[in-house]
Structure formats: structure tokens, C-alpha cells
Amino acid sequence: MLEVAAFRGPTLIYHARALSSAAPRSISTGIYYKHGTDDDQVTKEEKDKGASWADVYNIKRQKYGIGSKPESAFNLASRTFVSQGSSIVKEALAGVGIFAKDYIPPEEKPPNCLGLTLDSEAVKDAERKREARAGEKVETNPASRALYDAGCYVLDELFVGRPIARFWFLETIARMPYFSYVSMLHLYESFGWWRDPQLRKVHNAEEYNELHHLLIMETLGGNDRWRDRFLGYHVAFGYYWAINALFLFSPRAAYEFMELLEAHAVDTYSTFYIENKERLLELPAPAVASSYYKGADLYLFDDFQISKRPSSRRPPVDNLYDVFKNICEDEAEHVKTMAACKNYSKVGKIVVSPHLSFDNDSEQVQNEKRARWLEWSEEINRACTAEEDF
Question: What does 120-134 look like in DSSP terms, one character per residue?
């Protein structure tokens, strides 16, 4: 059986087809949305020729929000209010059986039609096992641990049976501390207290990585519901200022809390891709994931992984299983970076970009340098010998 669905969100323009386990590797039918300007419209030729696996989750225009250029906050806010208000009305009417002309039932579009699950109890079990292993438990103060446990409980209750929406919510929030860290480092520098551009650089790379996790979840329909967007944006706004305040009093505590959250993300994503392995292997990788992990410029991808030599990690992106496994490995690298930042604030062990901390020359380049050095040393020796003979 072939399930076909098209979907769009408030932030990205895309179309997708969810494939069942028995589906062929090409698709000849689809439901298409028109959204925004004419260049968003899928052409008749595209419809006639059908879509390949490479077209699935294809982002037609990478547009975020209501604006198309930098504008007054008042203009953007008012237009966003109208746009989101329309979404509220449509969802409310659908709840009472009144459907818009372009309405598609939730079960026929991503993320619901993808058939993905997440067992919250399995996540808790993975966390318990990790914390039981020597050196893997994130040691934190009781207040931070209590807030963390309360947040996990709320997530479990709010997103029952909706793992992609849960991941979108988490990634929306996960970016905020990196914004906060950079903001506070700018503040410290502006007041003439302290400056560390290398640390800011690493945090910028971390945020850029989390941004692409968020884009992947949006491509999969994680922000389809207005109520999820409303909650995610407002919690993220409050979380940003909370981390700013915490950093002002204790940078170590701010890094420690993020280390705790990133460790939880590793447990969650690892449980998810193991639980859904067969299904994820059948689904292609979103275009945004391929462009991020296989792009021509991977400088920022390397820059947040301070424990790895640049260019040493180039993961595959052949299907959705690879994508979620890559995200899980990214989160594990964030844990290491947060632990290093925490130690930096405690004992002063400097955190720098891996482009500076490693000798980044390839073996071929090193051999060429060695050959040039030997050639130079032989010339010096010949010159010295000639001088002695003279």
C-alpha cells in the first residue's frame, strides 16, 4: 500500500510522500499544496513525471516566518499574528467537523503518517543505565536536577505518541542556551570584563548544528500544530532569559544544566532510532539533512566537535535512520563540549576550536611538508660542507 501525503508548515515550503514498507521506490501520484508565491507551486511536469525518493521532504523554498527581508518588528509581529490566527481558526473548526477546502486529516500527513513511535519508559531505562555507568552521569546541583526531572515529566505527558513533535519542541529549546552564552560573552566583553572569541566561535557552531536538527524536524512536520508552535516559542523565549540570568551568576551552572539536557537528548534519540530502525531505513533522508552532513563547507560542522579532529567525522545520510543516528551522535558531542565548558569555568582549561587544537594537515600534506623540510636541510648541509671545503 502506498500512502501519499503533502504537507506544509508555517516556516518551510515542502512536499513529501510517506512510503509504506511495501511501497516501490518511485511514486507517480501526490497531493500538492500551493503556498505563497507562484514559485512555490509544483509544476505540472513534476506531477506528471512523479517524485523519486530524492524528492521526498524536498524543501522548495527555505523560508522562515512571515517576512522575506529585515523589517520593523511591529510589521513582522502584526503579520505573524494574522497568519497564526488563521491557523488557530482552522484547527478549531476542524475540531468541530468544519474543514477548510485544503484540509488534509492529520493521520494522512507527516508526521503522523510516518508511523514512528517513542517509548518514554524505554528512554527512562536508557537514562538509568547510562547514569549507572562510571563517569557518564552528569553531576549537578539538586535544584537543576529537580527542574530537569519536572521538564522530562511534562514532555512525556504532552507528546504521548508524537515523537517528531516532541523532537521539534526540544530542538526549538535546545538552541536557546547557545544564544544565551554568546549574548553573555558579548556582555562581558562590552563591559571590558573578559574576552574569549574562540569560545563564542564554538557556541556559534553548536547553535548552527542545533538549527539543522530543528530544520529536519520541521521538514518532517514536527511543527504542524499551532499549539505546539505557541508553546515551543514561548518556552524558548523564557528559557533564553533564564539561562542569561543563570550565566550571570554562575557560568558553570549554566553549562552544567545544558550538559544534563544534551545527555537526555542522547538517550532519547538513541532509543528512538533503535525502536524504529526498520521503518526509518525505508524512509529517505530530508534534503536539508543531506545538505548539512554532505555539504561542500563543513567547517562549522567540525567546529563544535572539540573532541574530534576536523574532517574525521563524515557520517552517511542514506536514509532517515542515518539522519537520526547522526543527530544522536551530534548530541553526544554537545555533551562533551558542555563538559569542557563547565571545566573551563571551574579550573580555567581553555576551550578552543578543534581547528586550532588539532594538527589538521592530512597525511599527504604532512608528507609533502616533511619532503620539503628534508630538501631544505640537505641544501643547508651542502652549503655548510661547501663552506668548510672553501
Answer: HHHHHHHHHHHHHST
Nearest-angstrom CA–CA distance, 312 and 310: 5
> Looking at the structure, do residues 238 and 376 belong to the same domain, yes or no?
no
- Within its chain, how far is the Cα of 72 from the centroid? 28
pLDDT of res. 355: 78
Cβ neighbourhood burial of 53 (10 Å; 0-12, 13-18, 19+):
middle
Q: What range defines the domain where residue 37 resides?
A: 13-108
Which of 117, 382, 386 is CA-nearest to residue 274? 117
- Residues 312, 360 contacting (CB under 8 angstroms): no
Task: For residues 290 and 173, state if they share a domain.
Answer: yes
Which class for 373: exposed (0-12), middle (13-18), buried (19 or more C-beta within 10 A)? exposed
C-alpha cell of residue 385:
660542507
Does 194 lie in the same domain as 100? no
Per-residue model confidence as pLDDT tens digits over 308-340 = 888 889 999 999 999 999 999 999 999 999 998
Predicted model pTM: 0.76
